[in-house]
Amino acid sequence: MRDGQVKAEFVEGDVVRVSIGAGLDEIYKRMFESACREAEKSSATIECGINVVVFGCFWFEATCNLHLKELLVSIVKPPRVGSRLWTMLERRSVVEKLDVLGGVSSRSVAPEIVSNLKKAFEVRNRLAHFKGDEPAVFGPIDAEELLTRIAALPDHELILEVRDHCREHAAAILAGKSWIDKVFEEYVDAEHAREQQ
Question: Which of 61, 111, 113, 155 is in the most buried spot, having the most CB atoms within 10 Å?
């Protein structure tokens, strides 16, 4: 296997299940981190900002999905009910999934994290589902006048959002990811303590 991941589940020292996965969460993470490094350069292009937002949101949602599914299947008894709950939540928004994660944790997600993530995901959605909105800036004018005005035309609002707020969106994604990791660690620590009893 060149890319992807292998998971092995053990029970009392025996391998009970081996699975392969695409490992897209790790691929998205690498793409996000690479885009963040590029975006720090003064010569960064708009493509870097787009990659920060798109792959950061992909990574965040993939991580959220993996952890939420694992928590639901592990916490809810019998596990098939947890699996069914996951199926019901799978297509819900990332904000709704964060709310569920907060419900299984003693840590509530900070409102500013949710608010900032909403903004990042709104930009990601606009990039992913671009409708080609092109507001008129002036007109009608003749071709000669157009040529004199082209250099002074403003960038599209979406381009400005990505370029001017790229670092803020990256910070929102990292803050949300940190919170998810803490929730998951809390669960893993609790599971480990139960096993030790």
Answer: 61
CA distance 164 to 153: 17
Structural Rg of the chain based on CA atoms? 22
Q: Render pLDDT for 162-175 as a digit per residue (tens, 0 to 9).
A: 999 999 999 999 99
Helix crossing, 111-128 with 94-103: angle to 10°?
Answer: 150
Q: What is the pTM of this model?
A: 0.83
Query: Can you state the angle between helices 46-75 and 79-89, rounded to 10 degrees?
Result: 150
Contact in structure between 24 and 45 (CB atoms under 8 Å): no
Domain locations in the chain as residue ranges? 5-196
First-residue to last-residue Cα distance in the chain: 39
Residues 98, 167 contacting (CB under 8 angstroms): no
Tokens of residue 179, six digits: 């919170």
